[in-house]
Hints:
Layout: H1 3-35, H2 43-65, H3 70-89, H4 97-100, H5 102-139
Helix pairs in contact: 1-2, 1-5, 2-3, 3-5
Amino acid sequence: MAPETRRILREGQRDQIISLLMLLTAIALFVAPWINGEPDSAKDGHRNELGVGMIVLFVAMARFKWHLGRWSDLTVLAAGAWLVAAPWLLGLRDTVVFADGSHVFHVAAGSVLIVLSIASLLLYNASLQEGTSRGQHRKQ
């Protein structure tokens, strides 16, 4: 396969497939309080899910429209890391979070976001390296 074709496929995977998975994770964060049973319990945890969900939703939608660079991946990575760490940093362990499954969902959704952002960064770096090596071949 030609290097240009590989680069285009990598960019398509990054811009379309990974962005779609990020979008689905954001939607899951929005509906999590109702899936867990009671949106009235663990309000701090649910607000946290909604906040991170909005950030990821906006970034994922922007990735569909524009070919964003590393900053979008780093934003999603930070949001995922926050989602994983939030139950301990915010002291949510003392609330009803454990009873309704929000804690487990926070860690799972945050882990998914971290994995997606790392995969996207790897694809972005690979396409940059291919573009750089292609430019060097032209000069020679």
